[in-house]
């Protein structure tokens, strides 16, 4: 088996001694054991009284010069011996930060800027060109071919369970045992053309029917017919605006309290990511563009905006952008190859409903691949930023490390991180597909048939392709960071540390 350079030990982080011209930092201390051994071994002695015979010689040395004799230069005073425990010049250590690069990034040197510009320019130009070419300029917004009605809000005033009767019918006698049951729901309309009026709707009492109760805020769909007729309305769902807004406010508050200005920048980046999805990705796919190309272009735009806005414009962030872009491309290629090899159609129930609502065809397999790329973007950002920051901090802690040593040390850090990242992605997809997994487990056709079904196989390709991209992001980003950082000029920011 070939030797893996990531298994090489870089040794302990070595101290960087202070330059000869550096003075002793103020407040620096040293332990008594830091003095030379000869000085430590010498016992402290009180200064002995000056011998009497030495006084005349010293007095002669202090006599005034004769006339015409050049004045003597005063002898510099001899240094006093340092008392026990006197401080010596302290060693200096390069400060070590932590993994995500939350401190202010140092400005990059000119050659590093040129190198990063040369590497990033093709990706940036491809992203901008993709967004410009795929956006549906001048085309009307897509509308559903199957009208679902106008949303109308209301409040449930009462509910009553009984036999299912047509409007105007009255139950005579006892209902038949085992007959179908319905729930009559009275709704007070809050808005719409019949605001303030009350309508009654009979809903079949089935396991899939929502359970409404008095006081529930609900949403109805108004078809546009007679405003006072109950047949013009369909009871759709509950109103969820208030709890969602409260939860979003708590989330924003938690991020700002912990992250402060960096947390605020992250929230702004999150908002801009939703803007890209709503104003570019969705309209372009609905207009009939290739969903995979749209997802790659949109993810690239989100990545540039989110990473630079959250982590600042620096060499570290640029390397993270490069690693993310390379990994996203790999995920897209793997997803396309293996979805075609597995003959995945992408025609799930939701996709079939979407095609029926659009009234025209759409690349269902491309829509599946677009979900893979967008779903892996968030985890990739975390992995690449962490790896880049780790390599940068290793370089600052020990400038003597070569790029191979930096790569090996960073890869060992990434091995610990990649396991949890892959598990996060797998659990996220498994949670989203939980109803499908439960339905498949009830079929009783065997594990092989379950895993080979359309819905389960789609989730397997989605999970494994994204996980391979995350695994590949660790060595790719670490290698890029090591190659870039060794060409960086380290700042002369040193801080004294006290010895134990």
Quick description:
By secondary structure, this protein is an alpha+beta fold. The protein has helices at about 35-40, 55-60, 110-135, 240-285, 290-310, 315-340, 350-360, 365-395, 405-430, 435-445, 445-450, 455-485; strands spanning about 90-95, 150-165, 180-190, 200-205, 215-220, 235-240, 495.
Question: What distinguishing features does this structure have?
Answer:
500 residues; alpha+beta; 5-stranded antiparallel β-sheet; 12 helices; 51% helix; disordered C terminus
Your description of this structure?
The chain is 51% helix and 9% strand. The protein is of the alpha+beta class and 500 residues long. The strands form 2 sheets. It has a 5-stranded antiparallel beta sheet with strand order 4-3-2-5-6, with no helix packed on it. The chain is elongated and about 90 Å long.
Quaternary structure state of the chains depicted: single chain
What's the number of helices? 12
The CA-CA distance between the termini, in Å, is 43 Å
Biggest sheet strand line-up:
4-3-2-5-6
């Amino acid at each position: 088996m070939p030797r893996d350079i990531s298994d090489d030990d870089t040794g302990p982080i070595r101290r960087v001694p202070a330059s000869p011209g550096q003075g002793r930092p103020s407040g620096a201390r040293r332990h008594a054991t830091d003095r030379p051994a000869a000085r430590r071994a010498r016992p402290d002695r009180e200064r002995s009284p000056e011998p009497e015979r030495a006084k005349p010689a010293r007095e002669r040395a202090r006599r005034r010069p004769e006339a015409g004799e050049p004045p003597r230069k005063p002898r510099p005073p001899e240094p006093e011996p340092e008392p026990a425990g006197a401080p010596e010049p302290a060693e200096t250590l390069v400060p070590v930060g932590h993994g995500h690069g939350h401190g202010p990034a140092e400005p990059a040197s000119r050659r590093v800027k040129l190198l990063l510009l040369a590497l990033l320019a093709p990706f940036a130009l491809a992203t901008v060109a993709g967004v410009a070419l795929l956006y549906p300029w001048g085309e009307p917004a897509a509308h559903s071919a199957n009208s679902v009605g106008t949303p109308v809000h209301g409040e449930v005033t009462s509910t009553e369970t009984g036999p299912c009767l047509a409007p105007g019918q009255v139950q005579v006698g006892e209902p038949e045992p085992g007959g179908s049951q319905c729930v009559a729901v009275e709704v007070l309309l809050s808005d719409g053309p019949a605001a303030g009026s009350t309508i009654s709707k009979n809903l079949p009492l089935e396991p899939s029917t929502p359970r409404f109760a008095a006081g529930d805020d609900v949403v109805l769909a108004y078809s546009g017919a007679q405003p006072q007729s109950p047949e013009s309305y369909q009871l759709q769902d509950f109103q969820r605006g208030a709890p969602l807004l409260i939860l979003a406010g708590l989330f924003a508050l938690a991020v700002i309290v912990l992250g402060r200005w960096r947390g605020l920048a992250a929230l702004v980046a999150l908002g801009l990511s939703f803007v890209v999805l709503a104003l570019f990705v969705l309209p372009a796919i609905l207009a009939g563009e290739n969903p995979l190309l749209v997802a790659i272009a949109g993810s690239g735009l989100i990545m540039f905006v989110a990473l630079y806005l959250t982590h600042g414009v620096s060499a570290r962030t640029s390397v993270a952008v490069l690693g993310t872009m390379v990994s996203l491309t790999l995920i897209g290629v793997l997803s396309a190859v293996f979805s075609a090899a597995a003959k995945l159609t992408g025609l799930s129930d939701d996709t079939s409903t979407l095609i029926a609502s659009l009234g025209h065809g759409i690349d269902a397999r491309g829509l599946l691949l677009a979900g893979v790329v967008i779903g892996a973007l968030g985890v990739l950002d975390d992995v690449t930023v962490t790896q880049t920051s780790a390599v940068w901090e290793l370089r600052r802690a020990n400038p003597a490390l070569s790029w191979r040593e930096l790569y090996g040390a960073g890869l060992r850090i990434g091995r610990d991180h990649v396991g949890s990242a892959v598990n996060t992605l797998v659990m996220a997809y498994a949670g989203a597909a939980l109803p499908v997994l439960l339905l498949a487990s009830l079929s009783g056709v065997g594990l092989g048939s379950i895993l080979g079904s359309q819905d389960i196989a789609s989730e397997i390709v989605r999970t494994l392709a994204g996980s391979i991209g995350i695994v590949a992001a660790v060595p790719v980003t670490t290698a890029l960071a090591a190659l870039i950082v060794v060409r960086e000029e380290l700042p002369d920011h040193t801080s004294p540390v006290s010895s134990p």
